[in-house]
Amino acid sequence: MNGIDYDGQEFENARKEMDKLVQDSLKGREIKPNVLFAKLSDLSKGVSGKLVNWSRVNSVWPLQFGLACCAMELMDFASSRVDAERKGFLMLRPTPRQADVMVIAGWVTKSMIPEIKRMYEQMAKPRYVIAYGECATCGGPWWESYNIIKGIDQVLPVDVFVAGCPPKPENLFGAMIKLQKKLGGDIEGR
Amino acid sequence: MALTRINIGPVHPSTHGVLRLVVDLDGDTVVDVDTRIGFLHRGVEKLVENRKYMQCPPYMEKLDYAAPLSVDELFVATVEKALGIEVKERAQYIRVVLLELQRIASHLLWLGTTCNDLGQLTTGFMWAFMDRDLVLRLLEEATGSRMFYVNMRLGGLVRDLPAGFDEHANKLLDYLEKRLPRYERFIEKNPVFIERMKGVGILSKEDALDLGVTGQILRASGVDYDVRKDNTYYVYNKLHFSSKHAVSGDNFARYKVRMMEIGESIRLVREALRTMPEGDAVGMPVKLVMPNAKNRISIVSREVPRGEELMYLVADPQSAYRLSIRAPTFINLAALRHIARGCRIADLFAITSTLDFIMADVDR
Known about the structure:
Order of helices and strands of chain B: EEEHHHHHEEHHHHHHEEEHHHH
Largest interface: A-B, 33 and 34 residues
Helix content of chain B: 40-55%
CATH class of chain B: Mainly Alpha
Number of helices of chain B: 15
Helix content of chain A: 40-55%
Shape of chain A: elongated
Shape of chain B: globular
Largest sheet of chain A: 3 strands, parallel
Low-confidence stretches of chain B: none
Mean pLDDT of chain B: 86
Mean pLDDT of chain A: 80
Number of strands of chain B: 8
Strand order of the largest sheet of chain B: 1-2-3
CATH topology of chain B: Cytochrome-c3 Hydrogenase, chain B
CATH superfamily of chain B: Cytochrome-c3 Hydrogenase, chain B
Radius of gyration of chain A: 25 Å
Largest sheet of chain B: 3 strands, antiparallel
Distance between the termini of chain A: 46 Å
Structural class of chain B: alpha+beta
Order of helices and strands of chain A: HHHEHEHEH
CATH topology of one domain in chain A: Rossmann fold
Radius of gyration of chain B: 20 Å
Low-confidence stretches of chain A: none
Number of domains of chain B: 1
CATH architecture of chain B: Orthogonal Bundle
Oligomer: heterodimer
């Protein structure tokens, strides 16, 4: 493609040579399993599962993604009155790759669905979705509109629904705490 | 020389909604900006046709969600003109008070998001939102809702101002008046802000008139046009205020005009509260059936926080036959292509944030 000739056989020979070198260097050395280390690794595996989950619960980072009116309240959620950072919901992340939870704040039009799907796919697993406000929950006042999807749950799996038009920032805070509980296993989820 | 074409949005932290920009770059100089809109289109003008008049304000409020009360009032005023209803005098004063408080809240929101776009996230955004929240709390006290108020009725309001509102409002206005110089101090002495603002995104007076921009963008270019003064409504002609304008037409002028308008609004609210007459302010009940429309066609324009918004209503007795909205943000967004040509890519979002568009208003 770029003018580089790829020779499979040559690559294979080089790999064999490398293996041989490694084998030679290990010759004469007997590797005994380290008892202490093995026990520690078992312990760490047990602990790390809980540790990972603990840190996941306590650092839910929302994505900075405002669609419509509810995005005003999403901004208020990030501002000083609600002070979301005290519970680990760090300042809204500007890129989906750093975010854990996507807050759908506003009505979802047909032309917006591919973009939302794409952003959802860009988020690292595990990823969560909060449908914030009437429009994202069920279409809200735009129920009869020809260009609106009646609820984001037709497109993405939603974890928490928040009702209201618009819900107060405190409600989003409550929804995030509910999501935390779900992550921690206090609430049964999908 | 080959141009680089990059895509920005539709989801971008600085696009204030879902706006897609296709930018042609020569190095880091913007050669052309193509604006792709329509990601929030929901057909509100069509929906209104199937609803009775007083079922519509909740839809109207979602046009300009940074200043819902202004659009609510504009729609109700249009219907009042169509049906030939006079607004009670006390209600006029209260409307002015609420509209100006809404203007303060909207400009503070603009300040916060602009600081966000220019990298002043921690201080500017937090300060502005903190103060905006206080204004919203006052509006909540007056109307019962935090964001979407639906507080207008034909001929008046849903309710009179609550007891103790004057005191709370004056307390808040005193506080805001003390805050404004602090904002100006930390913004105007901030080298990053100045670099992105002064001399960037210049729109000349002639171009501003040709492009038909309204509001602060027009006034920042040196045209002293304010609907509140030049096509006055309610009791604005009885109150003392000046419409602020600047001449340089750059980002800094647009910022400065908005900040000065907050000061003017504070003065307006104070004076309106002081000179408010006693009396009844409650409007007609929602279920009122009007026998016929007085004016078949009514056109009303108002100075909403983002410029001159205009509604054109072809009236039927019960509901709108046709409603057409001239959104100021749509017109102002159209000026982006003209302003952004020749600027640096890093300045592009300083320009978009000073144009201050609301995508729901643009797309309708």
